[in-house]
Amino acid sequence: MTNISRIQQVVQEIKPHIIIHCAAYTKVDHAEKEQDLAYRINAIGARNVAVASQLVGAKLVYISTDYVFQGARPDGYDEFHSPAPINIYGASKYAGEQFVKELHNKYFIVRTSWLYGKYGNNFVKTMMRLGKERDEISVVADQVGSPTYVADLNMVINKLIHTSLYGTYHVSNRGSCSWFEFAQKIFSYANMKVHVLPVSTEEFGAAAARPKYSIFQHNMLRLNGFSQMPSWEEGLERFFIETKSH
Fold first, then answer.
1. pLDDT, mean of residues 86-104
2. Dihedrals phi, psi of 202, to nearest 5 degrees
3. Which long-range contacts (CB under 8 A, 24 or more apart) does 14-18 make?
4. What is the DSSP string of 92-149?
5. Fewer CB within 10 Å of terminal CB in the chain, N or C?
6. How many structural domains does the chain have?
7. What is the average per-residue pLDDT within 130-149?
8. Are strands 144-145 and 213-214 parallel, antiparallel or unpaired?
9. Is the pLDDT confidence value at 1 over 80?
10. What region holds the RmlD-like substrate binding domain (predicted)?
């Protein structure tokens, strides 16, 4: 992603109609010490993809994050609230957003949050693994956000790319919970008897600051006529049903 000549070469060879840019540096705590690497991948990489996709006239989907916000609004953030990231990861992703807006004219910036699914590392899989190893787990209870099942995110992206309704969208499952409440629900759906202890962010300890409230409001989806997102509980329940059936 950081080699603009190579990206342009590949994109011009393939000439795609749509590019979905998912590549990112996502190690939130490590980013505090690896600032240049985070910006090189999340900002410069986004710039390079934006330039290349603009050259061939491809629509561009840039996946971003709830961490672009400060986290000071208990009722959450819509797409018209101004970002104010409080860690390097969030700042680098917001820089990527700005490059996309400046350099491309057919873009969808899709901010999502607390993402989980069948593949890759995520909170649900971590809880399931720890639940098999321990009878008791401590989980942060004072960070509140909107969990998102990747299948629901994919469904919305697939709808967006077949339109010309460009802009910035918040795409998460509806509603909110704390990480502590999320963990409790995970073990409930998984029928695992694990005692979950609530702890504060300060007690848990982390190199990077996290938004206290990163709840998403879906104004752009609603204003552009898209259907309401499923609740986070519905998404989690379907995750367990669908992963068991495969």
1. 98
2. -65, -45
3. 15/56, 15/58, 16/53, 16/56, 16/58, 17/58, 17/59, 18/58, 18/59, 18/60, 18/61, 18/161
4. HHHHHHHHHHHH-SSEEEEEE-SEE-SSS--HHHHHHHHHHH-SEEEEE-S-EE--EE
5. C
6. 1
7. 96
8. parallel
9. no
10. 2-241
Q: Assess contact for 43 and 95: CB atoms under 8 A.
A: yes
Radius of gyration of the chain, Cα coordinates, nearest whole angstrom: 18
Give the model's confidence band at 3: pLDDT under 50 very low, under 70 low, under 90 confident, else very high: confident
Residues 169, 23, 16, CA angle at the centre, nearest 5°? 80
Domain containing residue 81: 4-244
Query: In the sheet that 177-178 helps form, which strands lie side by side, from edge to edge?
Result: 177-178, 144-145, 213-214
User: What phi and psi, each to the nearest 5 degrees, are found at residue 177?
Assistant: -160, 170
pLDDT of 206 reads 84
Cβ-Cβ contacts under 8 Å for 38 (sequence gap 6 or more): 25, 31, 88, 89, 92
Residue 116 corresponds to which tokens in the numbers above? 């989980």
Listed in sequence order, the DSSP H helices in the chain are 4-14, 35-39, 45-56, 88-103, 123-133, 150-160, 179-189, 201-204, 219-223, 232-244
174 residue type, one letter: R
Q: Report the share of the chain in percent with pLDDT over 70.
A: 99
Catalytic one of 25, 89, 116, 149: 89
The conformation of residue 208, written as its DSSP 8-state character, comes to S
